[in-house]
Amino acid sequence: MEIYLIMFMFFYFIGLFMFSFKCKHLLLMLLSLEFIMINLFFGLSVIMSMFFMENYFLMIFFSMGVCEGVLGLSILVSLIRSYGNDYFNSFNLLW
After folding, report:
1. Helix or strand or coil: residue 21?
2. 13 partner at 20 to 30 Å CA-CA among 4, 35, 36, 64?
3. Could you read off the pLDDT of 35-94 as tens digits, one per residue?
4. 71 near 79, Cβ under 8 Å?
5. 87, β-bridge pairs
6. pTM metric for this prediction
7. Domains in the chain, please, with CATH?
8. CA distance 64 to 22
9. What residue ranges are annotated as transmembrane (predicted)?
């Protein structure tokens, strides 16, 4: 069980690294956020199975992660339709 927690922490920090350093495209940022959510889901499932807890919270967490992904993709589609690209530096977010 400890190897799963070590893997969870390793992949979580890889996701944070990718989110912080690959911020040129909005799609890459959304993919790294989804990678972090999947790692959190994996870590929660390992911890809950370790302590013999019920997994209803995991279903709620996974559905919230799916909703987050859908909202991010809808924002990406609307920005590509209005600006023509997904470069994060070309957006004027202060208007």
Report:
1. helix
2. 64
3. 999 999 988 888 888 888 877 888 898 899 999 899 989 988 888 888 777 776 766 664
4. no
5. 25
6. 0.81
7. 2-90 (1.10.287.3510)
8. 24
9. 6-23, 30-52, 58-80
